Amino acid sequence: MRKKPFHIVVSAALLVTLSACGSSKTTDTTASSAASTAAPSAAGTAAPATTGPKTKLTYWTNDRGASDHIKAEIAKYNAENKDNIEVEVTIMADNYEQSLDVAFASNQAPDIIKTSGSNFAPFIKKGYLEPLDTYMSPEFKNRFKNLIIDDGNRVDNKIYSLPNYGITWRLIYNVDLFQKAGIAAPPKTIDEMVEDAKKLTAAGKDIGAYGFAGNFKNNGGFGRTASPIVALSAGMLDGFNFKTGKFDFSSQIPMLEALRKMKQDGSMIPGFELLDIDPLRAQFAEGKIGMYINHASEPGVFKNQFPAKIKWSAAPLPTIDGTVNGASPFSNATVWLAMSAKSANKAKAWKFLESMYGPDVLKTYQEDSVGISAVPDVLAVAKKPSFANMDLFLPNKFDALFPVVPAVTPEGKNLGDEALRYILEGGDVNKITTDLSTRYNAALDKARKEGTTKNQPMPDFDAKNLQGSLVK
Exposure string (b/e) for 182-200, b if CB count within 10 Å is 16 or more? Predict the structure, then answer.
């Protein structure tokens, strides 16, 4: 594990600002009322790489889960960079987007901004981000050639950010309960998943364990469970057909029926419709759940947040019928850092970004189990992650970045609502999915007319061609 020279306590509406010069004073760094506490830096006494006044850059992030890692990297950069740059990082707990709005409105915007899939498009629309195309050398850009995604990190043919790490999706399973049930290997198909859930429930009856769970309290619970399996099986992500440019929720029928069957069998943990992800994880760590679908955050969760009292593992996702006609989505991996369009030091800001996107820095995020790298040349050199079972989430040839699914808001109930109702109550699944497709496509047509999405059909799209884009 890399040395972490700072310590941070983050609470609601708290900003923590650090720089290599490491003053212990408290300062107000935004126009908001948030407090900002600085701690002494281990690198504060390091000799500068060059003499003369330093160029100070400000870097804002809401990635508080990686706060120790980020601070260590910034301290190292401040001590070692040859460009006479000093970076001050602000790690924000809450109200990140709102604080940035205030900062830009008051001409106090940071030079470097952490962006994400949820705020990338709004930041572009507000003019917060600087296109990076003119700064990137051909060699630098080539490192990310398979990772440039329209509406993901490129808008109107301009690149505004690049990936660092993301999450792969796996079947998380209770090895102890599998052994008790006499199941030799995790399921390869969803029919096997249904049957295994029944066996696990029977084997766990004496301890109150159930075969399957999902966090259906969250409206995205069905998507978290079903979407990666459907994408791997049929190449459609979140019910969207990239080839036709239309939503087609008939693709979700096999998973809807499988989850309904597990509910009817009594294999789903009782109260799953009210279960959020952390209570689910806590139950799994206690041995009360046989399997569920989730992503590469779990090794850290079961090491630190809910230490597992069982032997657990992770396996590739099952598919609908045992065949792979798509790819497994590599999520949250299109963007990371961006340059502020209002930075007064853009050349130096690019120097910093270029360093942060270098393989020597990016590989540490994977090695320290912050996330799974999205960058092929980093995957090739990064050491095994430090957390147990994290290696099971490293990309294989089936993990890939998909195009961006257009964000729409349909009239009436959405997929998550309708899916949960069907799992609980049953009904005409064909009628339900046809109605969903009709309403989502009406919302998509409206979004295209209003210009809120630039998504268009991709007649040549084949998700199988995405395979091998991260690793062979």
Answer: ebeebbbbbbebbbbbbbb
Mean pLDDT over residues 383-387, rounded? Answer: 89
CATH number 3.40.190.10 is the correct assignment for the domain at 14-166+333-388: yes
Q: Which residue has the tokens 């919302």?
A: 443
Q: Which residues on adjacent β-strands are paired with residue 35?
A: 14
Per-residue pLDDT averaged across 402-423, rounded? 96
Contact criterion met (CB below 8 Å) for 281 and 257: no
Q: Say which DSSP state 340 is in.
A: B
pLDDT class for 404, splitting at 50, 70, 90? very high
pLDDT by residue (tens digit) across 144-191? 998 999 999 999 999 999 999 999 999 999 999 999 999 999 999 999
- List the chain domain ranges: 14-166+333-388, 169-329+402-466
Please compute Rg for the chain using Cα positions.
Answer: 23
Neighbouring CB atoms inside 10 A of 145's CB total 9
Closest CA to 166 of 208, 218, 228: 228
Which residues, 6 or more positions from 240, have their beta carbon under 8 angstroms from its beta carbon? Answer: 246, 247, 248, 405, 406
For residue 2, CA distances in Å to 86, 116, 165, 390, 447 come to 21, 25, 17, 17, 46
Q: Residue 19: what pLDDT?
A: 46
* Domain 14-166+333-388 identical in fold to domain 169-329+402-466: yes
Q: Do 237 and 228 meet the contact criterion of CB atoms below 8 Å apart?
A: no
Mean pLDDT, range 215-234, rounded to an integer: 95
Distance CA 211, CA 194 (A): 9
CATH 3.40.50.720 at 169-329+402-466, yes or no? no
Those residues with Cβ within 8 angstroms of residue 254's Cβ, 6 or more apart along the chain or in another chain:
190, 230, 233, 320
Strands (E), 178-325: 210-212, 240-241, 246-247, 289-295, 312-315
- Average the pLDDT over 227-250 and give the result: 98
